[in-house]
């Protein structure tokens, strides 16, 4: 049976040499990991069978959701394990070579950029923050606290029944407007506060409820690259924000450390985004 | 503090949106055209949700019926393997302690 090389990530040669990864299994849960030296760098790989990862089979397999889910999670687990002990440039799911020679050739093209990225990633961690909101709670919260809303409510109480009906409807749409504005600015403000702690940030896609499966609306989804010593203060900031926002329907979800998926692309080598 | 570990099943979205969509893209020798990540995530999340739901209402009997499900059979084999391993460990322990007693008597 033909064997292919599945590439998980690239690291410094020394770090790969220091890590005993021979006991760890790859994406197929069977072949073990090993590294291939590429000058000062090293590629972490494992063999995979062509009968499962060959081009035609893979095309079919990636349409089988159960297979894809399993393999995507396995890929991620391997990267988590690697990321725990080394500076790592994580590859996308299913980066596969037929021969070591081809991998060596490709690596030569990217070598300079990978070195720059690895230097930037040294001593950092990637964290993800998602901000969700329950608009019904925020609405309630706004109705009870906003000075303009409170004043209008008082005024309405003095009015005749017919007037009250009309003005209450008007007030309702006014509150709705404030809520939408608030969702936008609140998430934006938090992001800027979190950004203070970061080396780099990246905005991710804000998913709709069909994707997240949550009742709350996603308002912000961001990746944050932090120096290790900044992780604690950053998480404290997030916790404070979680506590402060709860009553108004805010839910802040923080996960990490992640392999630096969002800060390893050659496009993000220079400059801070977000 | 609610720090979720990224491999938790609750974060299917997290894992898929990063693994399938992000990470360094270099063209390998095998070309794979993945469908839209949004669509894939929805599909996979629904499958997982329906399996969970089935478990919740007790519709997962087929998962544990060894004649109907090879996965369950696998689990059975695993259980046997585990038992086997435990027995072997015990034998080893017994042998070791016998060896120690023997050495002691010498």
Automatic annotation (TrEMBL), chain B:
Its main location: other. It comes from the Bacteria. InterPro entries: Gas-vesicle_GvpA-like (IPR000638), GvpA (IPR050530), GvpA-like_CS (IPR018493). One of its GO terms (molecular function) is structural molecule activity. It holds the Pfam family Gas_vesicle. GO terms for cellular component: gas vesicle; vesicle membrane. Residues 70-104 form a coiled coil. The keyword GTP-binding does not apply. Keywords: Coiled coil, Gas vesicle. It is found in: Gas vesicle. Belongs to the gas vesicle GvpA family. This is Gas vesicle protein. It comes from Halobacillus litoralis.
């Amino acid at each position: 049976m033909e064997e292919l090389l599945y590439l998980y990530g690239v690291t410094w040669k020394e770090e790969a040499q220091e890590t005993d990864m021979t006991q760890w299994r790859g994406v197929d849960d069977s072949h073990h990991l090993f590294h291939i030296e590429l000058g000062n760098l090293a590629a972490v790989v494992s063999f995979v069978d062509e009968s499962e990862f060959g081009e035609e089979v893979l095309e079919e397999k990636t349409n089988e959701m159960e297979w894809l889910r399993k393999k995507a999670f396995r890929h991620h687990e391997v990267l988590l394990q690697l990321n725990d002990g080394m500076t790592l440039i994580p590859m996308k799911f299913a980066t596969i070579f037929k021969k070591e020679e081809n991998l060596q050739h490709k690596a030569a093209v990217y070598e300079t950029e990978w070195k720059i990225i690895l230097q930037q990633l040294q001593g950092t961690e990637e964290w993800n923050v998602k901000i969700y909101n329950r608009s019904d709670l925020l609405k309630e919260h706004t109705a009870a606290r906003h000075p303009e809303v409170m004043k209008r409510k008082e005024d309405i109480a003095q009015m005749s029944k017919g007037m009250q009906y009309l003005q209450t409807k008007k007030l309702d749409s006014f509150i709705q407007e404030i809520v939408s504005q608030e969702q936008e600015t609140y998430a934006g403000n938090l992001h800027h506060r979190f950004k203070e702690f970061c080396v780099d940030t990246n905005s991710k896609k804000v998913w709709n409820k069909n994707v997240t499966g949550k009742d709350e609306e996603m308002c912000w989804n961001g990746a944050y690259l932090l120096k290790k010593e900044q992780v604690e203060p950053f998480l404290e900031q997030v916790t404070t924000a979680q506590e402060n926002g709860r009553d108004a329907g805010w839910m802040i979800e923080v996960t990490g450390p992640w392999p630096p998926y969002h800060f390893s692309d050659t496009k993000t080598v220079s400059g801070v985004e977000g | 503090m609610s720090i979720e570990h990224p491999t938790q099943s609750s974060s299917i979205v997290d894992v898929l949106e990063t693994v399938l969509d992000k990470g360094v893209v270099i063209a390998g020798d095998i070309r794979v055209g993945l469908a839209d990540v949004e669509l894939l995530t929805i599909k996979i999340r629904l499958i997982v949700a329906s399996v969970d739901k089935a478990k919740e209402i007790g519709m997962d009997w087929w998962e544990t019926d060894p004649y109907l499900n090879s996965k369950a059979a696998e689990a059975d084999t695993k259980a046997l393997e585990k038992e086997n391993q435990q027995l072997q460990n015990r034998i080893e322990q017994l042998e070791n302690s016998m060896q120690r007693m023997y050495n002691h008597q010498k």
